[in-house]
Amino acid sequence: MNLESPKVSVQKSAQNLFDLLSDVKNFEQLMPENIAKFEVIGADAFIFGLKAMPEIKLVIKEKAAPNKLVLGAASDKLPFTLTASIDAVSNTSSDVKLDFEGDFNPMMAMMIKGPIQKFIETLAENMHKL
């Protein structure tokens, strides 16, 4: 299952935005309002939970400064990645798009597609808060 957020413009350089996203504690500012839990559990990992959804542990899997940051699920139960693609527009602005890629059975994919799409759109829309 592949989902993507709309591309959003952020008034930060690509390197600055990459650095902010590389610090996992900053993801708390991107979370939707219905967040039930957010806990940093290491330099490159955090756990978050949304109301009526199971808690998910995310770990930074790959960094390619300043254009790409890949987060992945720490559990094999829900195998997925969330990739932030950053494009420099100028010295003070950049575009970012989030891509979600998961390997789920068709029934699970059908159940989570809507909530996951809304979630990644919210993360992208909140990028300006960083």
TrEMBL record:
Top-rank taxon: Bacteria
| UniProt cross-references to InterPro entries, sorted A to Z | START-like_dom_sf
Q: What is the lineage of its organism?
A: Bacteria, Pseudomonadati, Bacteroidota, Flavobacteriia, Flavobacteriales
Name of the protein in question: SRPBCC family protein
